[in-house]
Amino acid sequence: MENCIQIKGIVKQGYGVASGKSKDPRFPNGTIAMQKPFFRARGIDLDRYFSGTINISIAPHNYEIKKAKYTFRNIKWASGEAAEDFSFFDCRILLNRGKSFDGFIYYPHPETKPEHFHTPDTIEIITSFISNLQYGDDVIIEVDSEQINIVRH
Predict the structure, then answer these.
(1) What pLDDT does 135 receive?
(2) In-domain check, residue 130
(3) Which residues contact residue 56 at a Cβ distance below 8 angstroms, ignoring those fewer than 6 apart?
(4) Which element (helix H / strand E) includes 74?
């Protein structure tokens, strides 16, 4: 990324709905696995990434959207659920072990999302599976400053 901003974050527990860990019968394999074909049809192929998200708190900072790399409107990805809008932003996770993982910030628009809301300091990231990543681990997130702005709350 040319214009990157780095921000420290801490891995936190999410709802488990994206990955299917929550055992919600509406989404047996998780929401991400169900959504991937719809995103692929619109121009972003997430098949190489883990079908789940990493939730990272950047408190005491929040993020502001400037310009998404991809935005998809009115995605009807599950029967019985309302259509939703989604945006994606370039990012990279840097671990203290010297490894980095490219991915996307996954942003279901809150105004179209029916449930499972996150605090404004939480970033959801789709990336490759990262073995040994634990809740409470410190990470650095790189974001594109033309897509996302980081602000102190």
Answers:
(1) 94
(2) yes
(3) 9, 10, 11, 12, 93, 122, 123, 124, 125, 139, 141
(4) strand 70-75
d(CA 97, CA 115): 35
pLDDT at 117 over 60: no
Per the CB < 8 A criterion, the answer to whether 105 and 95 are in contact is no
- Any domain includes 134: yes
Measured from the Cβ of residue 3, the count of other Cβ atoms closer than 10 Å reads: 9
**Token pair in block for residue 142:** 């790189």
Alpha-carbon dihedral angle through residues 123, 124, 130, 134, given to the nearest 10 degrees: 60
Q: How many domains are contained in the chain?
A: 1
In this prediction, residue 18 carries a pLDDT of 77
Residue 126 lies in a domain: yes
Prediction pTM value: 0.91
Q: Which of 136, 120, 128 shows the shortest CA–CA distance to 60?
A: 120
Here the CATH number for the domain that contains residue 118 is 2.40.30.30
The secondary structure of residue 145, as a DSSP letter, is T
Domain that holds residue 109: 4-12+55-152
Q: Which two tokens stand for residue 41?
A: 């049809």
Give the pLDDT of residue 24.
65
Q: Is residue 125 part of a domain?
A: yes
